[in-house]
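Risk register update: the risk that structure generation would not scale has been downgraded. Supporting records follow, first protein first.
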Amino acid sequence: MAVGEREGTDPSTYTSHYSKFERERFPANQAAWVKRAQDVAEILASDAPKRDNENKSPIAEIGLLKASGLLKVMGPKKYGGGGEPWSTGYKVIREVAKGDGSLGMLLGYHLLWSTTANVVGTEEQADSVQQAIIENNWFVGGAVNPRDNDLKITDDGDNIVFNGFKNFNTGGVVSDLTVLEGVFDGTEDHIFTLVKTDQPGIQFQHNWDNVGMRLTESGSVRIENVKAPWSDALGWSTETKRPIPEVLNIPFASMLLPTIQLVFSNFYLGLAQGALLAATKYTKTSTRPWPFGGDNKDTVTEEFYVLERYGQYAAHVEAADALTDRAGLKIDEVYAEADVTLHRKSINAERRGQVAAFVAHAKVVNTDTGLEVTSGIFEMLGSRATSRKHGFDRFWRDIRTHSLHDPVAYKKREVGKWQLLGEIPEPTWYT
């Protein structure tokens, strides 16, 4: 074990579940994929508080995602994937997050990173990347934190060479492939590529020990002389060693950003839904009515304030669910149109901006609703529910931790400009 490296969870933990998934039919439609995600969430929820407290590297949990097939939900059918659109991917993320926010987050990032070449690569690159990921059932992490200095990329002839440091990466320690992104030396041009994670030049610092999302291995990483062939530089020409304009110099090339922002919204929503479900079960089985209010009830489910609060939270969560689904369908429309046009030129700045605005609506509502629900459930549970063995706090800690990724205030400003001025959100690393 490397210095500072955490002990991993035991891969044999879920052996019986691996066998069960192997016996079951591969999901064939959205409903079946959602059901598979619900099964995985139920498994993860059964010991989530314990695993959260132990804070081990999620080796077994990633194995469970692999065995369930969820990593392949959006992969091409011709290579053994589910062939589902983003709207299904989002629902699957949401379901897994109900059981374990860390694994919902890891699945979401994997689905984004595994489809990177679909957005910024050539058709040939997208096809070869998808084939490799789906046929090998690889899990993809990423070291792409825009708040840090860019990785420096140099040319050594046949290869591009990455060097630098990132304060955050996602799931890298337990990944098979890592997405790297940096700036080509002497230019302002960015390059994305995917490399094998298990190599000496990718040096994880094993320093992720945060309040929430504790099983995401999101610590820092040093990149030293990591090479990739020029042919793996997504959207770049191997002959000119320059970006290919019809691939990268169009609004569609920035679709990764609203796509991942909606990933965030979906696991925030899943956390809120998971918290509400767990709280409901506990209230009905363990919470006692308050005997000193002057309007005493025989059971807690007759308490007016308990019913009122559950009603409020359930209504807000259901509204968030509908809004998030609508945003997911908007994402689907853009990707479907880009597939039809092949060169993606029909996706202009206005179209891209409208989708980003829909995503911003969902981000605002899910952040605010998620924080309110995950912190407020304790008022309906009682003091005994604060025991660490129950782990009710993990829902709030998870959403509180990740919602600091980028300030939701800026999403509210985007929505305000769209509403008041008709201005579409400007493409940035966070929009």
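Supporting record for the second protein:
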Amino acid sequence: MVKLHGKDFSRRDIESLSGDIRHVAGVRQMELSDGLERGIRILEFRSGTGLRFTVLIDRAMDLGDCEHNGRAIGWNSPSGFRNPALHEYEGEGGLGWLRSFSGLMVTCGLDHTLFMNSVSAENYNYNPRQQSNHSLHGRVGTIPARLTGYGERWEGDRCYLWAKGIINQGAVFGEHLELHRHIEIEVGTDIIRLNDEVINRGFYKTPHMYCYHINVGHPVLEEGSRYLAPIKDVVWAAHEEEYTAQKTGYRTAPAPQMNFHEQVWQHELASDQSGKVPVAIVNDRLNIGLQVTTRKDQFPCLYEWQNYQAGQYAFGIEPSTHHVLGNQAARDRNEMIWLNHGESKSYNTEFEILNSKQAIANSESKIKAIAQQPTEDFPPLSNNFVQIGGRN
């Protein structure tokens, strides 16, 4: 059954009310037409609960706008949803990515994440290319998708909104990786499901690194908003040498600040019995939040990003296949994922809107049952980067 407005509806009930379920929920394709966003194809999803979000087809099918009953969930940065034709991958010494950084989720990869890096390219067997030079967070987030389908699907009396696409990252004498992305939400719910598969279509042994930059803005983020996570250990902080200088710990957000320098933390998180890792950012004043659930065997690492600078106010949840140490360290520690032809890695993630005091309480209870996070704002840092096993 489809649950809408506090009532259960069968497919027959829905169809008796209107000739098209899109009077309450649906997915449709549109195109942005002005400024630096001109020409971007998007899919707009409405689940019938007040949840509306967009999928940026021409930007790796990432999640752009997101709102619930008119309250924004996702972050909109000064860069906007820039058309990828304007993107300069190697611009500004590798920091050009920051001019295309906006939205609820930006995908990082497929063969590199984190800061700029030059690593050996000997695996591509091409003498003029001795090194692979990577800019911040890789290439995939500004590659247009080939949209393979979208729409509404009925299964009995349950209806699902969905979209599928393929993002190709390839070069002659280089990597040839494909991201197969499937986004789905059941009508009448607030849970977005993201299922990704990264496949090596090439015939070189190819490195694979992957990360989601999930970005939450106002009003979910405001002074007093809390971060909830099953933290076993606080491993690392980018600001370790000035750990308390900005007086901003990992647990609670301040109001927007002047001259705030971004802070990034890596926590070692525990998983539940099924291997799932839920984390959340919640606003108790407004009774709204976002819970992100990943799998520990897919994303063994997770970073917390704090950008409380006025005019760019944001909080980030970053599940990652690798430690924050970077590309070369992943190779040195034998933690790099190497894919041969036809090999793949899959990722299954859920985004759940917490739309009530009870939903927030349920999320907090679930997370606490897995592990009790530190109660102090500035817990000691272990610098214990647990070895990631099972890599080829």
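The chain has a mean pLDDT of 97. On this basis the risk owner (M.S.) recommends closing the item.
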